[in-house]
């Protein structure tokens, strides 16, 4: 069938595009959603277009990843110690409330220079992931009283100054505002406690995913009497072994959490021989011992709890009343004794390798994969 001349003219531009063998242009490193709420950047190109990040200035939630680059060359282009007052009006106009920065090797003067500028912003939540901070931070600046954030999250962040990073970072934060602190995959949690200031408003402290912490490192990480308002303490996957050891660590640090998460630790049901009995904080009303590999109810539980989570363990029988504290809400799902005689095929009733229910095994695998991916991402970023 012969195409009409007019129709052929209309199709020519389309045919020329389809016939063009030239590759499509690389995707933009930054993407801004249609509502101008979230903007994410991932600068993986060998010659990144850093100016693409300008579109993120209108976003509320911003994520910027530098592709594992060493950002030291930026020190030659900017002066991190310059007075940021000339940019105050511009910074105050930014809509950003949540900022994530990651995948970079950052000189400390540059990082703290950014924090110095952000002190004039309306930022509330800051996350640093897969970052290596090199060198020492500059002197604490004069001017604003610090970065006024309520939430700080750090994952796989290493500091050249070792455990001294926390008191140094504190000097750049506005005192009395931080409510949530999350530190995961830390290279050092042995803080010089004499230099750490109190966190008067901190209610949530999450030190999960630090398997080298263990009970012996608790006092160094929970600097005594620095967390007077603490309500939620998470120690998931932190190498904890016994309830008595954790209790002793909390007592030595003087913390009084209301809720304690010890899930994903390989806990023993009994304490070490010769360890004195420990009294739990009277404020504690919720204890999470799920995914702890327990084959029996552990000794040394608090006398009274509102919530006790023993789900996804290896309990082969129902707990006796004399093994349990006075508890308002007890969770036992995912333990073998609840699945005995259930109307499931034998091969699906239990996971033969882990000894836990299939749903629990899937949940545990998801957590493990998440942690592994985070580690690999950090290693790949610095390769």
UniProtKB/TrEMBL annotation:
Disulfide bonds: 30-41, 39-56, 193-223, 247-278
Subcellular localization: Cell membrane; Golgi apparatus; Membrane raft; Secreted
Protein name (record): Monocyte differentiation antigen CD14
Cellular component per GO, a single term: membrane raft
Subunit structure: Belongs to the lipopolysaccharide (LPS) receptor, a multi-protein complex containing at least CD14, LY96 and TLR4. Interacts with LPS-bound LPB. Interacts with LPAR1. Interacts with the TLR2:TLR6 or TLR2:TLR1 heterodimers; upon interaction with ligands such as diacylated lipopeptides and triacylated lipopeptides, respectively. Interacts with MYO18A. Interacts with FSTL1.
N-terminal signal peptide: 1-19
Topology term for the membrane: Lipid-anchor; GPI-anchor
Annotated organism of origin: Heterocephalus glaber (Naked mole rat)
């Amino acid at each position: 069938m012969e195409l009409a001349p007019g129709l052929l003219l209309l199709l020519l531009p389309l045919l020329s595009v389809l016939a063009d063998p030239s590759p499509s242009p690389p995707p933009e490193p930054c993407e801004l959603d249609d509502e101008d709420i979230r903007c994410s950047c991932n600068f993986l190109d060998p010659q990144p277009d850093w100016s693409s990040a300008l579109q993120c200035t209108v976003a509320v939630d911003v994520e910027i990843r530098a592709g594992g680059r060493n950002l030291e060359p930026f020190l030659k282009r900017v002066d991190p110690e310059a007075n940021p007052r000339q940019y105050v009006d511009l910074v105050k106009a930014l809509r950003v409330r949540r900022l994530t920065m990651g995948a970079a090797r950052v000189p400390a003067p540059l990082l703290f220079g950014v924090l110095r500028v952000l002190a004039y912003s309306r930022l509330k939540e800051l996350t640093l992931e897969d970052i290596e901070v090199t060198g020492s931070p500059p002197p604490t600046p004069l001017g604003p009283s610090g970065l006024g954030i309520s939430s700080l999250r750090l994952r796989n962040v290493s500091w050249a100054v070792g455990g001294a990073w926390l008191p140094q970072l504190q000097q750049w934060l506005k005192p009395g505002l931080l409510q949530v602190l999350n530190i995961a995959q830390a290279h050092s949690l042995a803080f010089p406690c004499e230099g750490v200031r109190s966190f008067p408003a901190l209610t949530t402290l999450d030190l999960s995913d630090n398997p080298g912490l263990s009970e012996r490192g608790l006092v160094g990480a929970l600097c005594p009497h620095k967390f007077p308002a603490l309500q939620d303490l998470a120690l998931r996957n932190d190498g904890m072994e016994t309830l008595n050891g954790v209790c002793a660590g909390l007592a030595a640090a003087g913390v009084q959490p209301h809720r304690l998460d010890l899930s994903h630790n390989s806990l023993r049901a009994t304490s070490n021989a010769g360890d004195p009995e420990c009294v739990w904080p009277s404020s504690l009303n919720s204890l999470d011992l799920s995914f702890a590999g327990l084959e029996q109810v552990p000794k040394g539980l608090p006398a009274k709890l509102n919530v006790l989570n023993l789900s996804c363990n290896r309990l082969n029988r129902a707990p006796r009343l004399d093994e349990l504290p006075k508890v308002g809400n007890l969770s036992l799902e995912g333990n073998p004794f609840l699945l005995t005689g259930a109307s499931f095929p034998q091969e699906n009733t239990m996971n033969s390798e882990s000894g836990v229910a299939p749903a629990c095994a899937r949940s545990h695998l998801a957590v493990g994969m998440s942690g592994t991916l985070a580690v690999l991402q950090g290693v790949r970023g610095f390769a």
